[in-house]
């Protein structure tokens, strides 16, 4: 039984000339008790919010659904179990991947949202990783991922602000998240598909442009994006921006060996820990444990979990035990806060992690997914 998946994935490797070997840290033993907590959260996410008939989460949205798909597969890769193996093909994103990898078809799904497109690429690749690992056919997922990646890459435009991809096909905004995701997907593409241009070239040009873009402020945090005059617009420093840049830089380090990229990543990770927390726990600017205060919108409800997931990916790519030791205590604190403060009835996780819920924590598929991401990260890199 052990040989079969290996043989199949070896055959697949020959046929598609691809698939990354996990780095040593990606194979590292994980904390069983934290994984068990994560499995409980994932089960609740599916039971409470997932509709097998539509393939979507009730109260979800395309890009956060994509993240939930990625997370279920990240979890199964961690546990070695297969309890969510039917979800990919059942999901709306998966059904589309099975239906077509045509560019026009996927343009219709992406509907002009280039950041959404890049999140979909990450989900399709993670599903493919899982399927390859289990000896299943991943080809439709890989083909669709490449199509969607190319949709993102086509939005690179040097004629405004000297480069960067547009946030949407309306071409009104160059922002941090879309460009951070372009760096990340390009660098991961360069790792997974080493002989396929233009992944590495795109990753290098993306970082070169972002490094000079001014979107990272003097505190080390990335603001939301650029003004029409191509200067930092001073808008909110969301947590997810501070995580996705790190995983992009970690992946670029993994392909180039340039360790300055890790230094750059940790400027921002450390600034997050210093500046975007209350009582050492991540706090989005819209988080309020009490009722009647600010309320995170549908997108913002998932941001902290994305910071955690991309810290996990950063540590995978940095592949350095001393860096794991540096971040493990903070990761453990987040795991504990999600467990003690964030988790409500029936294993659903709310939006507020930094303090016990006093009526302000919101419970949605996005917040549930965010909590799951924190626990999956902690199972790998937190204390046990
Ligand atoms: C390594 O990364 C740093 C940080 O971004 C950059 O400034 C430098 O040019 C890179 N070095 C090479 C040889 O590419």
UniProtKB/TrEMBL annotation:
Tagged with keyword Magnesium: no
MF terms (GO), sorted A to Z: hydrolase activity
Keywords: Hydrolase, Signal
GO biological process: carbohydrate metabolic process
ATP-binding among keywords: no
Extent of the signal sequence: 1-19
InterPro entries xrefs: 6-hairpin_glycosidase_sf, Glyco_hydro_76, MUG_Protein
SUPFAM superfamilies xrefs: Six-hairpin glycosidases
PANTHER family found in the cross-reference section: MEIOTICALLY UP-REGULATED GENE 191 PROTEIN
Protein name, entry field: Glycoside hydrolase family 76 protein
Organism: Roridomyces roridus
């Amino acid at each position: 039984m052990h040989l079969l998946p290996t043989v199949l994935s070896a055959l697949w490797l020959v046929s598609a000339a691809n698939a990354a070997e996990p780095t040593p840290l990606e194979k590292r033993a994980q904390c069983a008790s934290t994984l068990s907590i994560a499995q409980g959260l994932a089960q609740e996410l599916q039971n409470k919010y997932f509709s097998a008939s539509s393939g979507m989460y009730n109260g979800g949205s395309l890009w956060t659904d994509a993240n939930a798909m990625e997370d279920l597969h990240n979890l199964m890769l961690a546990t070695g179990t297969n309890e969510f193996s039917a979800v990919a093909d059942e999901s709306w994103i998966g059904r589309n991947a099975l239906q077509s990898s045509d560019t026009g078809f996927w343009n219709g799904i992406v509907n002009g949202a280039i950041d959404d497109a890049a999140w979909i690429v990450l989900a399709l690749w993670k599903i493919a990783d899982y399927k390859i690992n289990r000896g299943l056919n991943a080809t439709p997922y890989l083909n669709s991922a490449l199509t969607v990646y190319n949709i993102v890459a086509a939005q690179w435009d040097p004629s405004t602000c000297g480069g960067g991809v547009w946030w949407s096909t309306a071409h009104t905004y160059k922002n941090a998240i879309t460009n951070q995701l372009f760096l990340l997907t390009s660098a991961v593409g360069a790792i997974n598909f080493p002989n396929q241009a233009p992944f590495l070239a795109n990753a290098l040009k993306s970082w070169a442009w972002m490094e000079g873009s001014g979107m990272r402020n003097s505190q080390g945090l990335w603001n939301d994006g650029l003004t029409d005059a191509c200067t930092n617009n001073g808008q909110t420093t969301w947590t997810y921006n501070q995580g996705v840049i790190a995983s992009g830089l970690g992946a670029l380090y993994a392909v180039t060996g340039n360790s300055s990229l890790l230094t750059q990543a940790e400027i921002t990770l450390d600034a997050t820990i210093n500046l975007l927390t209350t009582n050492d726990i991540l706090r989005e600017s819209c988080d309020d444990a009490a009722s009647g205060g600010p309320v995170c919108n549908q997108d913002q409800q998932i941001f902290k979990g994305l910071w955690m997931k991309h810290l996990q990916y950063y540590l995978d790519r940095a592949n350095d035990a001393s860096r794991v030791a540096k971040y493990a205590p903070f990761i453990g604190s987040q795991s504990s806060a999600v467990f003690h403060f964030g988790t409500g009835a029936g294993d659903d996780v709310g939006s507020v992690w930094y303090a016990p819920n006093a009526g302000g924590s919101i419970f949605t598929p996005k917040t549930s997914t965010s909590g799951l991401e924190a626990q999956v990260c902690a199972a790998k890199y937190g204390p046990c």
